Amino acid sequence: MKRKGTGPDGLVIVDKPEGLTSHGVVARMRRLAGTRKVGHAGTLDPMATGVLVIGVERSTRLLGHLMLTAKTYEATIRLGQNTITDDREGEVTSSADASGIERERIEAGIAKLTGEIMQVPSKVSAIKIDGKRSYHRVREGEDFEIPARATTVHSFTVHDQRAAVAEDGTPVIDLDVTVECSSGTYIRALARDLGADLGVGGHLTALRRTKVGPYGLESAHTLEQLEEKLEVLPIADAAAAAFPRWDIDAEQARLLSNGMKLKAPGLGVDGPIAVFDPEGRFLALVEERGASARPVAVFVG
To answer: CATH assignment of 10-69+213-237?
Structure first.
């Protein structure tokens, strides 16, 4: 029986609307689920829409591991203007005629931003610098630098290229792209860096996240739909979808529930493995460490 005031254990896959912060979505979900124990995996800027994975109750403990999975985005990049935020919500800081840039140069620039790269996040990102959010430092007028960090862009594909004219009359180019990348990749920074490489500047004008790990838009629900009916993916189903599965016997389940180490299953997996008992109950996330399976999060006991 559930304790009074607790919500359902599981994940809610939200199709976040434009204009709402990830924190705002969490606040709405706390009300809908009837619990304070709600979190999200991977922040989306207010301008961005799409897949936001919400954890409720015990499933919040899955979120840190889900944040490490690959993500897919659809975006529009404008070449010809820089903005202070690297997206359309910020003030334009420079403009340059981009009309003469050929597709071959754009593809060459994109190739430089594909694979394992070093990336400097946008200064208005939520990244912490010495324990303080970068965007807070910007608002307070601080002069600081963010060190580059390693990230992986698995694919960076242009689907459409259009000539356009910006509000200030600058001839620009708009690119519709799809990016598949590792966690921690900033799509705004890709737009900025592509524009810098081409010598005309660049920023993001639209961003939609279409997938986080195994969870895509096909399983996402709008907040309006969730207001009518709260759709929660049970924690066992969520774990089975996101991580490699290891089914153990009753004796192994007893040992694991009592905090004992298990012999590694030998799956050769780099990362968490979801462990299930003979009745199909989700017990824990473990990682293979040599001959042992080391628990990283236990959900029973």
So the answer is: 3.30.2350.10
Write down the CATH superfamily of domain 71-212: Pseudouridine synthase (3.30.2350.10)
* Residue 156 pLDDT > 70: yes
Cα separation, 140 vs 27, in Å, equals: 26
Catalytic residue among 9, 15, 45, 193: 45
Whole-number pLDDT of residue 2? 44
Which CATH code is given to the segment(s) 243-298?
A: 2.30.130.10
Beta-carbon contacts of 118 under 8 Å, excluding residues fewer than 6 positions away, are 148, 149, 150, 151
Q: Which of 277, 279, 284, 278 is nearest to 259 (CA)?
A: 284
Is residue 168 part of the annotated active site? The answer reads: no
Domain with CATH 3.30.2350.10 in the chain: 10-69+213-237, 71-212
Residue 280's closest CA among 257, 258, 248?
A: 248
pTM for this predicted structure? 0.89
Residue whose entry in the numeric block shows the structure tokens 């580059």: 148
Residue burial 273-287, b: 16+ Cβ < 10 Å; e: rest: bbbbbeeeebbbbbb
Helix (H) or strand (E) holding 196: helix 187-198
The kind and range of the H/E element at 138 are helix 134-139
Provide mean pLDDT across the span 36-42: 92
The C-alpha atoms of residue 288 and residue 281 are separated, in whole angstroms, by 20
